[in-house]
């Protein structure tokens, strides 16, 4: 397969190492300090795809790659909502996923922290008026913050998390 596209691939650009910039280092440092001050151990987040295209989840998972490495600053992704400190919602809230989201929301420990991610959560999507959409997440859940973007880039996610944690 590589031989078919060998002339089209710019290996110098593909192999170029990305380096963290000053803003990323500042965000990581501030997040680490805030998490250390406000939480007993790591900040545990639980993410639910409520009917999205998957782009927001990909950007969030990119935060765990070696460039951003948010596990180093004290953020951990958990797969049980009972362990989570914050629940993240992405995508349009569909009728089918609503009962499951409500169950997870009720199982979230007190105080309940919910952050919505992406423009779909605020119904800025072309298919928002279909029969399958329940509505905006902030109508059905008490969401404390929203991170804008379609999808929000990893730095925007870090900024949004930092802003929310600082407001606690």
Verbal overview:
- The chain has 168 residues and is an alpha/beta fold.
- The chain has one domain: Rossmann fold.
- Helix content is 36%, strand content 16%.
- The strands form 2 sheets. A 5-stranded parallel beta sheet has the order 2-1-3-5-7, covered by helices on one side. Strands 4-6 form a two-stranded antiparallel ribbon.
- β1 (43-49), α4 and β2 form a beta-alpha-beta unit.
- α3 packs parallel to α7.
- The chain is globular, with a radius of gyration of 18 Å.
* Percent of residues in beta strands: 15-25%
Number of helical elements: 7
Regarding CATH, which class?
A: Alpha Beta
Which regions are unreliable across 5 or more consecutive residues at pLDDT < 50?
none
Average pLDDT score: 83
The neighbouring-strand order within the major sheet is 2-1-3-5-7
Distance, first to last CA: 52 Å
Sheet with the most strands, sense and barrel status: 5 strands, parallel
Instruction: Please provide the count of β strands.
Output: 7
Helical coverage, percent range: 25-40%
Element pattern in H and E: HHHEHEEEHEEHEH
CATH topology annotation:
Rossmann fold
**Shape designation:** globular
Just name the CATH architecture.
Answer: 3-Layer(aba) Sandwich
């Amino acid at each position: 397969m590589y031989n078919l596209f060998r002339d089209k691939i710019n290996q110098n650009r593909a192999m170029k190492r990305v380096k963290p910039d000053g803003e990323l280092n500042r965000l990581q440092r501030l997040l680490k300090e805030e998490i250390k001050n406000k939480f007993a151990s790591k900040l545990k987040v639980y993410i639910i795809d409520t009917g999205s295209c998957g782009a927001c989840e990909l950007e969030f998972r990119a935060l765990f790659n070696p460039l951003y490495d948010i596990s180093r600053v004290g953020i951990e992704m958990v797969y049980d909502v009972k362990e989570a400190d914050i629940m993240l919602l992405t995508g349009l809230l569909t009728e089918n996923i609503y009962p499951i989201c409500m169950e997870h929301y009720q199982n979230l420990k007190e105080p309940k922290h919910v952050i919505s991610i992406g423009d779909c959560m605020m119904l800025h999507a072309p298919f928002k008026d279909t029969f399958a959409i329940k509505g905006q997440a902030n109508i059905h859940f008490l969401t404390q913050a929203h991170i804008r973007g379609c999808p929000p880039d990893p730095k925007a996610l870090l900024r949004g998390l930092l802003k929310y944690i600082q407001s606690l």
